[in-house]
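step=predict obj=Anti-FecI sigma factor, FecR n=321
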Amino acid sequence: MQNQRRTTIDPQILAQAAEWYAILRKGQAHPAEQAEWKIWLTEHPDHQTAWARVEFHADRLKSLPPKAAYVALTAPDLQRRRAIKNLVLLGAVGLSSWQFSRSRYWQAWTADYHIAQGETKTITLSDGSTVMLDSGSALNVEFSMDVRRLQLVAGEIYIETAKDNIGWHRPLVVDTQDGRVRALGTRFSVNKQADYSQVAVYANSVEIQPTDPTASKQLLQAGQQTQFVSTRIDPAHSLKLDQPAWSQGVIVADNIPLSEFLLQLNRYRQGYVTCAPEIADLRIFGSFPLKDTDKILLNLQANLPVKLSSPFPYWVKILPR
């Protein structure tokens, strides 16, 4: 019981434990999922503590009002997992639903789809559209009689739209905190950064509407990209790629500083890479496959006046040579 009262567990670890509980609770997890859960459980003592707390609070589902318990336990698979995870994690963290639901972290972990660091995933929507999620992305999907809505909570998605296959001609939109992007028969990507959203169009066009109703809409054509906030849209500029580089498994560097390149690389790597300030402005060119990020670092060492240092596990520092 002492571990269950502990209040210093990282909320991210609690969220991971709640996610595993939602997966395993139905008793139909694949052997590979069960093995992965066991590995996670033994990786760190805090994982075991978090799991114990989640199990303890999961028992409280039995004391929910009948209607809430029914919704949590009998909904379709995706909705059921989401409901169970939300209810258990709220109890384990000990915050009010209003406090925690407003955090970006909570929104990402309770999204319909969320992708771990270093992974990508392609999903096919019920209308036939395909959505590819980049590393660390989180997405909600909500189809109604009037609209096909994607809510991008974090990260980046690349979308190849299909015609509405039920004949209702519902628009497909992507919403972020900054506004709405409406697809006009197209291939495009939306990237949610901390302070703005970014859109790139690879075929046809999209319409951007910031959250502020007084802000003007803007049509973005194929071969263009821009970024926007809730009150305005920046001028469009040209786009060189046919689709996002990450969707093809590479990072493309076109004369960018080393520091910026490493920010991108860190999104696809377990651990952290940094560089000394005196070499932060070294220019990087080329296309780098993301399959082996260690190989990317060795490539930098071989072609730049730098050397690699590992002060601690999972931390690589790039120094002048």
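step=describe
The chain has a mean pLDDT of 80.
step=end
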